[in-house]
Amino acid sequence: MKTLLALVLTLGTLGAFAQNKPLPSVATTYTVDTTASSVAWIGKKVTGQHNGHLKIKSGNLVFAGDVLTGGEILVDMNSLTVEDITDTEASVKFVGHVKSDDFFATEKFPEAKILIKSSKKTTKGLEVKGDLTIKGITLPVNFLAQVKNAGNKAEGKATLIIDRTKYDLKYGSGKFFEGLGDKMIHDEFTLSVNIIATK
Fold it and tell me: Around Cβ 198, how many Cβ atoms within 10 Å?
């Protein structure tokens, strides 16, 4: 009798605990609107900087409640443009060089990818952990993102500062070449990602 009573009490306690335990949030996936989303880039050198855009090929964002839990963004590297060079011939020459094997080798590596693994809330936004793939090289990245999702729409903005030499982009780097003078290109470049996604 005592054993039966103890069993009933134990089951009752477990049942109460299960009722009080919050249910896990259901994952919701939003598909990236590639026409409304964009990636802007800035690269700096000793004598100034260049900037332009890249197009997003496809992507998705996965949420549990208002926390980003997964997703990926595929970037079309052949869509690269430069916007500060207004001379057509010089612009074409610059873009061709950046797409060449000296830099992104877009013929062999036509896509870059941001893979989102997890995030956590901070006072400054979501701290996102993931992987970044450029030229077939995948490395972990952490970055801060401003993200919100409501109803059928999700929006996200983030800035990534990337050391290009880690992705075999060594051309013009002072780490690997001496005597570059004012032809030296800074190792870090910036990607500003603006995402609009819908269910």
Answer: 12
Question: Dihedral through CA 173, CA 176, CA 179, CA 180, nearest 10?
Answer: -20
Report the C-alpha gap between 11 and 66 in whole angstroms.
34
Neighbours of 161 (CB within 10 A): 11
**The whole model's pTM is what?**
0.84
With CA atoms as reference, report the closest residue to 117 among 86, 156, 72: 72
What is the per-residue pLDDT across 62-73, written as a single tens digit (0 to 9) for each? 999 989 999 999
Average pLDDT over residues 14-40: 75
CB 183 within 8 A of CB 172: yes
Average the pLDDT over 17-29 and give the result. Answer: 62
Burial of 158 (0-12, 13-18, 19+ CB in 10 A): buried
Contact yes or no for 199/62 (Cβ under 8 A): no
In CATH, the number for domain 24-198 is 2.40.128.110
Could you tell me whether strands 111-122 and 67-76 are parallel, antiparallel, or unpaired per DSSP bridges?
Answer: antiparallel
48: exposed, middle or buried (C-beta count within 10 Å: 0-12, 13-18, 19+)?
exposed
Residue with tokens 């009798």: 1
Distance CA 43, CA 38 (A): 17
Q: How do the domains of the chain map onto residue ranges?
A: 24-198
